Amino acid sequence: MDRIQRGEEPIIFSLSEDDKEMNSAIELANKTLIDFDEALKFSENENFALKIRYDINNKLEHIWAVNIEKIDDDYFGIIDNLPNSVIDIKLTDKVKIEKDKISDWMFSKKGKLLGGFTIRVIRNRMSQLEKEKFDKEFILSID
C-alpha cells in the first residue's frame, strides 16, 4: 500500500488494481448496495456517502461523494475528496453517480460506521500510529 502525501490534505492510500482484498471489498459493497438504499429511507441514519470510481489516463481513482440523494433510480452527491489527478471534477462539485461506478458505500447509525468496506481494508493495513491518527480524525467509530 503506497501513501501519497499532499501537504495539509489527507494521505491517499494507493493500492494495486489487482489487490484481491480490496476488490472483494468493492464486490461486497456492490452486492449490498440495497442495504444503503434501505438506510436512506430512515432519518436516524446519517453521513451517507458513496465512493465513485473514475477512470483517469488508464488508472483508477476512487473519490468519495457525500450528502447522497437518490432520485428515482439515480444517485447524486457532493465530491468530498480532493482528487489526486487532474480531472474535470473538483471538491464540492455536485455529481450524478452512475451505479456501475460505485466502489463503496457508507453511512452511520448512532455514531457507528456501516458499510465502508474499502475503509476497513485500508485501516487494517495501517501502522498502529496511522490507525490512532485515523481514528481521531474519522468522525465515526469502526467495529
Describe the structure.
It is built from four helices and eight strands. α1 packs antiparallel against α3. The strands form two sheets. Strands 6-5-4-3-7-8 form a six-stranded antiparallel β-sheet. It has a two-stranded antiparallel ribbon with strand order 1-2. The protein has one domain. The protein has 143 residues and is of the alpha+beta class. This is DUF2314 domain-containing protein. It holds the Pfam family DUF2314. InterPro entries: DUF2314.
The proportion of strand residues reads 35-45%
In DSSP terms, counting alpha (H) and pi (I) runs of 4 or more, how many helices? Answer: 4
Characterize the biggest β-sheet: 6 strands, antiparallel
Low-confidence stretches: none
Percent range for helical residues?
A: 25-40%
Number of domains: 1
Give the N-terminus to C-terminus distance in angstroms: 22 Å
Number of beta strands = 8
Mean pLDDT: 87
Q: Please tell me how large the radius of gyration is.
A: 15 Å
- Described by the principal axes of the CA atoms, the overall outline is globular
Read across the widest sheet, the strand sequence of neighbours is 6-5-4-3-7-8
- Classify the secondary structure makeup into a structural class: alpha+beta
Element string (H = helix, E = strand): EEHHEEEEEEHH
